């Protein structure tokens, strides 16, 4: 998929400035179209990347354990790999305003595992698109299923939306929690165990209580 068209964004931002009654030539706004184009290239750069590509260097579980399981996040028992408190930011497709939050991701390895840094890369790639939080949660889970074929996946996102905190109802303290589960971690008891591991009493714990 092609990268963002910076020149086209600049022209569009200039039109927006004119439409709200501003002068795009005045000193404070002269470089705004360029700055917005640069920001959008960052915000939406994930459109040009296949998130599953981050998982292509997955290795067999036996190899990971033999070569040093800690480097891949694999406990000797072969139980869940859990990554907590992964910061992410995305842009809501309804108003093109940011939403910012934390992702918690767990999977039960099947035959393959991947380096710990690959999971945040999947989250970041999918977040760098016009998104809905609900869909982002599902897409992260689906990418892990496709790339790793695990026995189970659990993804929890907890985010604040600027379209809620800065406009409309202006609920400055509110956050939204979404959950996606697959395979063995879709089973309530297994899911509850992972949520407790992530942190009972925090956002993830609240999510488990809500989803129970």
Automatic annotation (TrEMBL):
Pfam family, one: GTP_cyclohydroI
Catalysis: reaction(s): GTP + H2O = 7,8-dihydroneopterin 3'-triphosphate + formate + H(+)
Keyword terms of this UniProt record: GTP-binding, Hydrolase, Metal-binding, Nucleotide-binding, One-carbon metabolism, Zinc
Pathway of action: Cofactor biosynthesis; 7,8-dihydroneopterin triphosphate biosynthesis; 7,8-dihydroneopterin triphosphate from GTP: step 1/1
EC id: 3.5.4.16
Lineage top rank: taxon: Bacteria
GO cellular component: cytoplasm
UniProt keyword Repressor present: no
GTP cyclohydrolase I domain segment(s): 9-198
Binding site residues for Zn(2+): 92, 95, 163
Coiled-coil residue windows: none
GO molecular function, one term: GTP binding
Family per similarity comment: Belongs to the GTP cyclohydrolase I family.
Protein name in the entry: GTP cyclohydrolase 1
Species: Agromyces sp. G08B096
Organism lineage: Bacteria, Bacillati, Actinomycetota, Actinomycetes, Micrococcales
């Amino acid at each position: 998929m092609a990268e963002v068209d910076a020149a086209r964004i600049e022209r569009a931002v200039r039109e927006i400035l004119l439409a709200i009654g501003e002068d795009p030539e005045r000193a404070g706004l002269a470089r705004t179209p360029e700055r917005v184009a640069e920001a959008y290239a960052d915000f939406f750069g994930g459109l040009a990347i296949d998130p599953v590509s981050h998982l292509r260097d997955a290795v067999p579980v036996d190899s990971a354990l033999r070569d040093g399981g800690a480097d891949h996040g694999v406990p000797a028992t072969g139980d869940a790999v859990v990554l907590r408190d992964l910061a992410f930011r995305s842009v809501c497709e309804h108003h093109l305003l940011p939403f910012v939050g934390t992702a918690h991701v767990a999977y039960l390895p099947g035959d393959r595992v991947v380096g710990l840094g690959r999971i945040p890369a999947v989250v970041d790639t999918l977040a760098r698109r016009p998104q809905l939080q609900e869909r982002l949660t599902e897409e992260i889970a689906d990418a892990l299923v496709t790339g790793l074929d695990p026995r189970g996946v659990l993804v929890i996102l907890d985010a604040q939306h600027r379209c809620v905190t800065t406009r409309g109802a202006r609920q400055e303290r509110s956050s939204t929690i979404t959950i996606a589960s697959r395979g063995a971690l879709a089973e309530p008891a297994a899911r509850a165990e992972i949520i407790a591991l992530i942190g009972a009493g925090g956002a993830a714990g609240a999510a488990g209580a809500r989803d129970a």
